[in-house]
Amino acid sequence: MKNGKVDGQVIDCSTGDEYCQIDVPAMQGKFVSSVRSGYLDILGQIVDHCCLSMPFTSPQANRITDRIYDQYRVMPDFPWKSKSNKDNGVFRHLNSGKWFGLIINGRRGLVTKDDDEQNVDIINLKSETMPVDGQSVFPAYHMNHKYWISVVLDDQLGDDDVMKLIDESFHLTGK
Question: What is the pTM of this model?
Fold first, then answer.
C-alpha cells in the first residue's frame, strides 16, 4: 500500500518476470484482459477486507464524522460530481434532509482571507453564538456569514468543542 492506494504485481510463473501488459491500456487481447480483470478483482477484495474507508483528509474530520454517526446516526453524503467538489460531505437531518453541516477540503486562506495555501478540512455549521476566534472558527466560507461559521478541523479546537458546535447546528437546523 502506497499513498493510500493498494498496488501489486502480476508475475508470470513460467518466466518469473513481471507481466507488465496489464498496465498497458492499449493491450486488449482476450488473455491480457482476463488477467487484468482478475488482478483488479483481487485488489478490490483486498481493499474491501483490509482497508478502512476514510471519507475526509484530516484525522479530526474522520473522528468527527464517527461522532456525528454515533450521536445522530447520520453519515455524510457526497452530492457533487465535479472533480473539485466530489469529496465535500453534507450532513443532513434524517427526517427533513436539511443540512446541519458540510465538510469541505480547501485552502486555509479561504477562511483566513489570506494567501495560506495549506489544505485543511473545514466544517460549516449554523450558529447563533458565533464563536469566531480567527484561529479555528471563522465566518462561514461560501455560506451566509450572519448564520453560519466555518471551523478548521486541524485539532486546534478539540473534538468535544467541535461537537458542541455541531449540536448547536443540529438543533438550529432541525426547527
Answer: 0.70
167 pLDDT more than 90: yes
Residue 3 has pLDDT above 60, yes or no: no
CA distances from 145 to 34, 130, 136 (A): 55, 9, 15
> If 0-12 CB within 10 Å is exposed, 13-18 middle and 19+ buried, where does residue 153 land?
buried
With beta carbons less than 8 A apart as the criterion, state whether 123 and 102 touch.
yes
Handedness of CA 133, 139, 141, 147 (dihedral sign): positive
Residue 50 vs residue 51, higher pLDDT: 50
- DSSP of 55-75: -SSSHHHHHHHHHHHHHH---
For the chain, the average pLDDT equals 89
Here the contacts of 88-94 (C-beta below 8 Å, separation 24 or greater) are: 89/55, 89/56, 89/65, 93/170, 93/173, 93/174
